[in-house]
Specification:
The protein is 11% helix and 37% strand. The chain is mainly beta. The structure holds alpha-D-galactopyranose.
Length: 381
């Protein structure tokens, strides 16, 4: 089929879908997402892993119970050509080996109990010092080596999606409190929504996110992608990538993405913060701080026309430009994931918040409910 035929078919499909929706009300449109599940192999200890496929007329997302990982995400380009726009592996074994190896990339995973770094792998809470598993130059990264990205969740199909639950024991990786975590991935039309919630029986800290690597061109590197970040400030880091505590203005720096800018345009600038991160690996302070869902970022790939809008209730976003990818990881279809061939937009509270009383708090009190929401919204132009 020529790209032109393909495009007409897609337009026809969208039109028909629109007509059905208009005639029958929204309920029928919502029901348009199908959810199926299938076995996806076994963990080294024999635990069975399942994969859920969420299909709407425009997007297909596959999520597995190991790490709550978004394994693949197919979206259409401007010619209605579908492609998988996230990095990862074809099989469970690939993920398990990477998540237990030395250079864990956290492809597509749910991250917890605390996304990004906690300095010196420790923090004080209610006058008590908590020591965490250190896995990153003496710091704790992404909840430690057996964080939520490296455990098997319970999964069940729900309308339009999958609900994953995980029980994180008091003291796991050093964190206080029995925490019951629920994450729901739902797909409606071209919006993939992630809802995170949790409750604890002791005061604790929590910062959940998702670590998907996007490449909207589905090939090459991400340097031509144009990024907009709705943030006038960012949190500069020290040599261990721990925030110094400053909320620095982006004005006049390579960190100013308030207007859509190609990622490669300034990434090699002679800037101390870029040198420390080996590129972009920083938290931006989102302009919207009211906890309501609002646009944080827009990513656009001019070569294919694919666009991703990221909306969140979180106060920060970590833009990581894939600087630790160096071609040694062979991912889907044997592709060597080269330097900056994927990038993450991790909605979050700021790294190391438990050690920065001035940052928005990450404390969750016993008996209270944590809730956070992020939407990845796809289109093309
Ligand atoms: C995060 C960190 C990076 C890196 C990646 C995983 O985004 O900020 O420094 O550790 O995870 O490779």
């Amino acid at each position: 089929m020529s790209p032109y035929d393909c495009r007409s078919m897609n337009i026809l499909r969208t039109l028909l879908f629109g007509l059905v929706c208009a005639a029958m009300g929204t309920a029928i449109c919502v029901a348009k997402t199908t959810v199926t599940s299938a076995p996806f192999g076994k963990m080294p200890d024999g635990t069975a892993v399942e994969i859920f496929t969420l299909s709407s007329p425009t997007v297909e997302a596959r999520i597995m119970t190991y790490g709550g990982i978004l394994v693949s995400l197919k979206t259409a380009d401007r010619n209605a050509k579908m492609a998988d726009v996230v990095l990862g592996y074809d099989t469970l074994d690939g993920y398990v080996a990477n998540f237990n190896g030395s250079g864990t990339a956290y492809f597509g995973a749910l991250i917890g109990r605390y996304g990004n770094r906690i300095g010196k792998a420790s923090f004080m809470l209610d006058g008590k010092k908590y020591a965490l598993s250190a896995n990153n130059n003496g710091n704790s990264l992404h909840g430690g080596p057996h964080g939520y990205s490296n455990v098997v969740w319970k999964g069940k199909a729900i309308p339009n999606g999958v609900e994953l639950t995980y029980f994180s024991k008091d003291g796991e990786e050093g964190y206080p409190g029995n925490l019951t975590v629920t994450v729901r991935y739902t797909l409606v039309g071209s919006d993939l929504k992630i809802d995170y919630s949790a409750t604890t029986d002791k005061n604790t800290v929590i910062n959940l996110t998702n670590h998907t690597y996007f490449n909207l061109a589905a090939q090459g590197n991400i340097l031509q992608h144009q990024l907009t970040l709705n943030a006038a400030r960012f949190t500069p880091v020290d040599a261990g990538l721990i925030p110094t505590g400053e909320l620095k203005s982006v004005t006049g720096t390579p960190f100013d993405f308030r207007k859509a800018t190609a990622i490669g345009e300034r990434i090699e600038a002679d800037d101390e913060q870029l040198h420390l991160g080996k590129g972009y690996d920083h938290n931006w302070v989102l302009d919207n701080q009211d906890g309501k869902l609002s646009e944080a970022a827009v990513l656009y790939d001019p070569s294919t026309g694919r666009e991703l809008r990221v909306l969140t209730t979180e106060p920060g976003i970590q833009f990581y430009s894939g600087n630790f990818l160096d071609g040694t990881i062979k991912g889907k279809g044997g592709t060597a994931y080269a330097f900056r061939s994927g990038m993450c937009l991790e909605t979050q509270h700021y790294p190391d918040s438990p050690n920065h009383p001035d940052f928005p708090t990450t404390e969750l009190k016993a008996g209270k409910r944590y809730h956070s929401q992020t939407v990845f919204s796809f289109s093309s132009r």
